[in-house]
Known about the structure:
alpha/beta, about 200 residues, globular, eight-stranded mixed sheet, single chain, about 30% helix
Amino acid sequence: xxLVTNKISISGPAGGLESVLHLSPATPxxxxxxxxxxPTMGGTMDNxxxxxxxxxxxxxxxxxxxxxxxxxxxxxxxxxxxxxxIQDVISVVxxxxxxxxxxxxxxxxxxxxxxxQARVAQxxxxxxxxxxxxxxxxxxxxxxxxxxxxxxxxxDEVVPFSAVQQWAAPQHLPVVVVSGATHFFHGRLNDLRxxxxxxxxxxxx
Length: 205
C-alpha cells in the first residue's frame, strides 16, 4: 500500500506543533494520534516505535498523525512534564477532526507518550486507547478505559514488566506480552505492527 505523508504545522497553545500526517488512498474511517517518548531523554516523533505505530494505523485506513511535543524539533514552547503536552495532543485531535470530520478516535502513545495519552483519554473518551510500554512508575499513570490495548516487552529495561503488571492487574487490564522485547522493541517492530493490526481487525471500530 502506498501511503501519502505530509509534513504540517498545527497550532497549539504554546505555538506551532511540528507534525506528520500519514494517509492511505482509501477513505479514512478513523483518526489515530500517536505520542512520542520523553523529550528530556531525546524522544521525538521520529522514534521507530512511533513511526511503526503511525504507519500501521495508516495501513488500517485511519488518518494517522504523529507530532513533536512542545519544545521538540520545530515545535514551539518548552517541556511541561506532561501537563502542557496533554493540550498539545488535544490540539492535534481538534485539527484532525476539523480536517477530516468527527471520525472515531484512537489515541496511542509510547513510553512517556503513553502516560500523556492515558491522561488525554480521561478528557476525550477515545473509541480506543493503544499504549506501548507506558511510563508506569516514572509518572502517575491513571486508570484507563476498558478495551485498552496494552503492549509491553518482558525484557523492558526502562519500565519493568513487573511494574506494568502491578498497574494493570487491579484494572483487570490484559497485557499483550512481546517475549524477549526490550523497551524500544529492537528487532521486534514487525511483531508490534502485527499485534496492532490484528487487534483492529478482530475488534473493528
